[in-house]
Amino acid sequence: TLQEWGILWKQLYVKHKVDLFHKLRHVMNELIDLRRQLIQGHLAQDQTREIKRHITVRLDWGNEHLGLDLVPRKEFEMVDPDQISVSELHKLSDSTRQRHGDGCRVPVSHHLFINLKSFTYNSISEDADVFFFLYDTREAKQISEKFMVKLNKNGGPKNPEKVDRLCALFTDLSSKDLKRDLYIVAHVIRTGRMLLNDSKKGPPHVQYRRPYGCAVLAMSDVFHTITDLKEEKDFVLKVYTCNNENEWYQIQENIIRKSNTKYSAPSTNYGLIISLQLLRGELEQIRRENQAVFNRALALTRKLGFPDVILPGDIRNDLYLTLERGEFERGGKSVQKNIEVTLYVLYADGDTLKDCISLGSGEPNTSEYRSFVLYHNNSPRWSEMVKLPIPIDRFRGSHLRLEFRHCSTKDKGEKKLFGFAFTPLMREDGTTLSDESHELYVYKCDENATFSNQGLYLSLPCCKEDFNSCPNLPANLPFQRSPKETFWVSTILCSTKLTQNVDLLALLNWKAHPDRVLDILGRLRQISGEEIVKFLRDVLDTLFCLLDDNTDKYGPLVFQSLVFIINLLRDSRFYHFRPVMDSYIQNHFAGALAYKELIRCLKWYMDRSAEVVRQDHIQEAMRALEYLFKFIVQSRILYSRATCGMEEEQFRASIQELFQSIRFVLSLDSRSSENLVFTQAALLNSFPDIFDELLQMFTVQEVAEYVRGTLGSMPSTVDIGQSMDVVKLQSIARTVESRLFFFPESRSILLPVVLHHIHLHLRQQRELLICSGILGSIFSIIKASSMESSVQEEVEMMVESLLDCTAEITGEYVSCLLSLLRQMTEIHFHHLLNNFHSKEELKEFLLKIFCVFRNLMKLTIFPRDWSVMRLLTSHIIVVTTQFLSPALHKNFSEADFDFKVWNSFFSLTVLYINQPSLQLEALGPAKRKKVLDKHGDMRVMMAYELFSMWQKLGDNKPHFIPGMMGPFLGVTLVPQTEVRNIMIPIFHDMMDWEQRKNGNFKQLMDKLDSMVSDGKGDDNHRELFISYFLCSLLEKIEQETWRETGISFVTSVTRLVERLLDYRDCMKGDEMENKKIGGSVNLMNFYKSEVNKEDMYIRYIHKLCDLHLHVIFCDGACFMADFIDMFHSSQLYLILQCWEYGISLCRELAFQYETLYDYQSLSWIRKMEAAYYDNIIEQQRIEPEFFRMGFYGRKFPFFLRNKEFVCRGYDYERLEDFQQRMLGEFPQAIAMQHPNQPDDTILQSDAQYLQIYAVTPVSDISDVPQLERVPERIKSFYRINNVSRFHYDRPFHKGPKDRENEFRSLWIERTTLILSRPLPGISRWAEVERREVMEVSPLENAIYVVENKTQELRTLISQYQHRQHHGNINPLSMCLNGVIDAAVNGGIARYQEAFFDKDYISSHPEDTERITHLKDLMQEQVHILGVGLAVHEKLVHPEMRPLHKKLVDQFHMMRTGLHHVSSPTCGLVFHISADTANTFFLIKQCFLLLKNIFTIYFVLQPSPSSSSLSSIRSNSSQIINSAPSSARGK
């Protein structure tokens, strides 16, 4: 698996799926680590199971996200489909898919690990105790024990051995606890002087425990942070101090509520630094998985009270005592007392119990406890909790004594005893202190008081309730109660051995009060479940003792009590005590006579179900049926052992009578009684649970007969109500899944009645899901049994009962049907097909089964990744088809021919062969081999079946022509040689019949088109289809009379397949739009020109238009829109700036509107036409570049292979961008770095070579005289549109290179490309039809270069004159600099040297006209540069003035260099331009002179602002502005 993942993992990176890439890498590393742990073999059994579960979950996750097949597993191991039924395979596949969502029914325990790393708040300078606990602020109570840490005055552990070992684990937190408003609270209690900053208060040798500060941490955010972490996370807790010690008892509440006036914040952010980690699972499991944590002297800190799940072996006996508050007298002192409470636990003999007081986990227990002292407070409130882990055997007779002392702060620092209080732990009735607050009496005493004889005060009342119970107290008591002083404590008992419940104790001690037994049994239901399960064994012993003592008197009440306890164990909190009950029954239960009374009571309850209105008690008894039978059977076993099997017949008779009562209850009509429905439902739910108990006393056949009779007593109709239907079927389902059903001898008895009920529901289409589940279980058992013995009779029963039923086609039902078909042998099929009473019934059956099979091959039944399930289904279908086809031929051929059945059969075979799961070519080599080894190529098996049945049709073949022609053609597109061989004779027959009937094969074309469009065929078998199948077909038809027509048809099909597959490949979602459009155009041309199928041509016209509109290609969308809708096309031209093409369309629409007198629409269309003209004049359009592309190599699609195209680039797209884009569209292509034509090696190579370079459009507008004076922005559109000729140049030197001036010998090889259609058109690409090559002389090249540069300047200057660049003059600056600077340093000057030289002119008299033309072009360029500099001066930024000045200076040098070659007229112009600043008169004369010359020109201009620089002539203002700025300044 990881090898396969590794390949796909790398592809994720290539496809930029970075998130999944990183997740998968993490999962792969986890799998490698888990596998390493398994291989080492040092794990316990449950650990191995858990690691396998983790591995399985991660494998399923990875397979799902990578699109791989689902692997069905059982107990985390892969299953062999041959060893299990199809139903079980379906169930396993479904459970594997849903495994991630499965939740555990048993609550999961959580444990919070806490580690105190440091306490950096060092201002105490005294020893301190830190107590951590969990606090619920919503209920304002502590929910856990305390974790205690002793620190020295430096903040380190007081015990040096505990360095880095100050950690605890708060255990047994439930999921509900994590959702509570929990806080970690830390109380800091210092040990030292009374007042921290006053050394006079008390001598230094006397130590007091004094409250210092508190820290809190909200756990709601913490749990979200640490839930998924596998390591500790650090947190800092600020320690706040209390402003008033009277508020200490609620300091954490004040901090949480942010009552700032009641506490002081620390001056620094430091405090307690702790780390936390949340652990899940059972404590023993966590101990194994985190041994390093437990080796750090981890302190287990338990939850107050029992956890949500009480485990039987969990033994606890903890009493939690909280010192709440006290009220004490001042005692004649001027100030209030400093009171310290000392706690002792004493036994009945007066000895102090050693180590029975725990201040918190993490520190050893002590024998006494001293509270902290609140300074000068006679009403102190401590709210300090301690745990008293007192042994069970010492609990009775023990008591608590609390001594109160005043701590003086004088020099001696004495602690004077002034009173005490006490309380016994257990009352006289045997119950412990109740979980509540207790107000204790305070008795006066002094330091001289002796407590050696505790009897002196134990005879006194400890509280008000105690005082009321003993009113006659003697007057001379040893200790006098202080009437104004009281002390409050509260207790919480968490014990699995002691109880506070009086009723429970009375039951356990029933012999002390036999007269109260009936009352005690009646109150058993009022005892809490926790108390009962703690004493489960004792309670059960008591109940059966009562039953033995007096059966007649106590029997019914004992039965009710037993039912109550059994149902109590069905609660999820006490579910873990069911094994305790089982253990009790097997090992401790001794009621040998109990079975008689239990049977009698149970039968009595059932017999009364028809009479009683309220049936709650009967329903409870029905729910307890399982354990009642456990007690009955075990009691009978004990009796048989004791009496050597006496009264066996009576026992069997009583059981028989009991089952008659059960049948009686189930046979009652419950439609009129809702209570009876619930009783029957409770009985049916519990009934399957008693089978295992009965098997201990009876044979398998006897138990099966009991069960059959009971199931048979249920109503046979499905009208008893939907809820009872469900309960009845659920009971049958559990019966099938029980151990009883696995015995063949019982299955033969039970199967008929089970199938009878299922048959009824399937007939009426009721509860199909449950029925399919029952059938699935039956098939799984039959499949397992078939490995060991024959199951032919059972399969026969299933066939007779089920195959005539139909149900909704769902995965569950279909898996049952497949299981049945898989188990059927030839004998079963023979019996089935011969048992139909008529051919109509057989026909109906065949149509149904073929329909089911066809639906099975849809992805809706089984998900795509259920590969194992799909392959097994395909195998069953092909085997079943082989068994059914002889019956089809036998009953529906010749005179009895039935088109519907045969057509259904052929449709099935075609769909089967084409189904995706069987296309082995798409699989990897390993998976393909695995499938072939297991099943073979099932397509071939079905193809032979198809061929065999086709041959048996005889003269009925025309019924399927041309209807099956398309489907059969689809089979030939399957890339499997043997399948194609099989299909050749079939196609020959079809073509023969088609030629006889219609004389052509046109319908085949349409079918081929639709199938390839639907995804049939691919690149790998294109060659196979063309070269093998069609060629073989040609050989087959060679001798036919219609040979020529057939050959022509096959040739057309060959070319069509090429184009269709190209088109289909181009239209894939991830392909670029250019390829899609190219493939569409290629296919359109074929349909139009080669096969003349206008309908198909129009179909692809529409597709191509939709494609253009989708990508908003300006040119192509407009051209295609003309085919669709003139009205919308006119709007589209407006949006896409194709205004010139839209004008003619507007005119056509205007003519139509005018003809129809639709003046409103006419007005609208004229306005649109006017808007087009405005846009042409005012809007700027970008001139795109054109690129020649050559696609060389056999790896390109057919419509591109070894061809060259010219492509119109996007706006602002340059050669480098275009080349990068094309390489992105063809990522496998190799870019050729030269423009030379490739040789045959490249043309025939199995690769892709891409040759790209820029070409220049050759427009025809230069031949149109009237366009000479048209503005540049209008001419530019026609220069780049409707162009079919492009050229590119290759410079070379003819003869020796002129070293002084290379321009003299620089020739140009100009290649002109003539396209098959003009650009732009319906595509941005156009194929090159032919090419022409000519050589351009150096002089002609110079003319061409100067002319092009002048045109570029003219266009750019025109744009800036009309403010179309919004202030950015960088392009103009660069262009001017490039021309002027090049002219100074070379450029025009080099042309002058080369071609204006006398020697050149004399030696080339034929070039005289060209030289003159070059001179004129140079002069024209100079004029344009002058205008450009004038425009540049107006727009240039002040910071760029130096550049402008440099350009002007260089321009003067350039103009001076050209002066001597100027014509006289031009010289005059230059003279005037140069001397403009000297005299205004000359300017005026010049203006008058030129006015007449340019009159026509001005008339042609739409406005002065829109004048063009298309010629060297310009108005006077332009000539003036061309002068240097210095001259104009003068």
TrEMBL record:
GO terms for biological process: small GTPase-mediated signal transduction. Its main location: cytoplasm. Residues 1016-1467 form the DOCKER domain. The keyword Transmembrane helix does not apply. It comes from the Eukaryota. Residues 1508-1522 have a biased composition (Low complexity). Residues 1508-1530 are annotated as: Disordered. InterPro entries: ARM-type_fold, C2_Dock-B, C2_DOCK-type_domain, C2_domain_sf, DOCK, DOCK_C_lobe_A, DOCK_C_lobe_C, DOCK_N. Keywords: Cytoplasm, Phosphoprotein. Signal peptide: none annotated. Residues 316-494 form the C2 DOCK-type domain. GO terms for cellular component: cytoplasm; plasma membrane. Gene3D superfamilies: 1.20.58.740, 1.25.40.410, C2 domain, Dedicator of cytokinesis N-terminal subdomain. One of its GO terms (molecular function) is guanyl-nucleotide exchange factor activity. Belongs to the DOCK family. This is Dedicator of cytokinesis 3.
